[in-house]
Structure formats: C-alpha cells, structure tokens
Amino acid sequence: ADAQIIKALMPLLLDSARKTPPPTHDRKTMPMTIEDVRRSLETPSAKIWPYEYGAPGQLSQPIGLEALWVARWEANEAEHKTRWRWTPDDRDLVIKGALMDANGGPHVPAAKADRARQIHLYGFT
Question: What secondary structure does DSSP assign to 68-117, as a single string?
C-alpha cells in the first residue's frame, strides 16, 4: 500500500524536493539529486510513517479494541505486550524514502531488515 501511495504522489514529492532539497545533517550524509530522491522513494523500504513529535516513538495511550483490532496481533501480543494498541500522538504522516548507500543503492540496517515481518506479526516495529 505504501508503494502505491508513494507512486501516486511521486510528482508532488519530486516537486517538493526540487523546491526544498533534502538537508545534509552531518558528514555521513551526502547531498541528493532529484534522481537520488526518486530512487529512494521507489525502493521497497520506502514507507509512510506516523510523524513522531518530540522523541522518536512517542505514542499516545492505547486505543480501544473497537477502534483497532487485528486477530494476528492480538494472538502474538504475549510476545510483545499490547504495543500494537498504541497509536501516534497525531494524525500527521511523513513519507520516508529508503536509506541509500554511497553507490546510490538501498541500505537496510540489520536491525530493520525484518521490519515488514514485525509489523505483519505484531502490529509495530
């Protein structure tokens, strides 16, 4: 679903990147061309994520089961408590392109390699 939404928004995302190029925060970050941004957004690990105000991972109180319930997540919650019931503090979303290596290819840190499986099984990562 993320890939389909990102594809539909691609012209707007690239226009935004042209107007406001991605910042370089430190010596580990390289400037990106529009083609770099496009490649980053077309990579499978690009995603739409809740905007996290304040500290990363800041969540609100658990919501009720009537608002969000996935049987698989509930069945697996003994492993990871009830974190799948927690929600972002706000409804703002951010589109995150994939991390890219110095050669322009995608870079997935080892700790994030099975993120899709974690979300599928547990409802969070």
Answer: S--HHHHHTHHHHTTGGG--BSS--EEEEPPPB-TTSSB---GGGTTHHH
